[in-house]
Write a structure and sequence with these properties.
Layout: E1 2-8, E2 13-19, H1 24-35, E3 45-51, H2 60-73, E4 83-88, H3 94-107, E5 111-115, H4 118-135
Helix pairs in contact: 1-2, 2-3
């Protein structure tokens, strides 16, 4: 697995770019690494770009375990509803990502959405952030 973590303070984003063979524990490690970087902010939303990563071998119980771990490690303020956009170009991962999006509604503190293109994901995150900022 190859990855990079970038912070876009101007967009309020933590951007993960991940490629290669992926295991759930490795993905959780990448998310944990972001939180200890100097540029981290609890106010960031998330954009995860999975490039040629197949999730079709990840079982539903692994997805549930990942979500439980993510929820336990989420220390965001309750007043700040973070959003997470996931972009994946692997058609065989669609079922896993659909399950992820639906299951996350009851298991995660973030609002999760799945997209086929980065531009769609960024547009959703920007619109949601704008709505959130005008509500405050």
């Amino acid at each position: 697995m190859n990855f990079s973590i970038d912070f876009e303070a101007e967009n309020g984003l933590c951007v993960y770019r991940i490629s290669g063979k992926l295991a759930p524990d490795e993905l959780l490690s990448v998310f944990a690494m972001a939180r200890i970087q100097p540029g981290w902010s609890d106010d960031y939303d998330f954009l995860t770009i999975l490039d040629h990563v197949s999730l079709s071998d990840i079982r539903a119980d692994s997805v549930t375990r990942m979500m439980e771990t993510m929820r336990e490690n989420d220390d965001a303020r309750p007043s700040h509803k973070r959003r997470a956009a996931i972009v994946c170009n692997d058609p065989f991962s669609k079922a896993t990502l659909t399950y992820w999006e639906l299951a996350s509604r009851n298991r995660l503190t973030t609002e999760e959405r799945v997209f086929q293109h980065e531009t769609q994901a960024r547009a959703w995150l920007a619109a949601a952030r704008t709505m959130s900022n005008t509500a405050n």
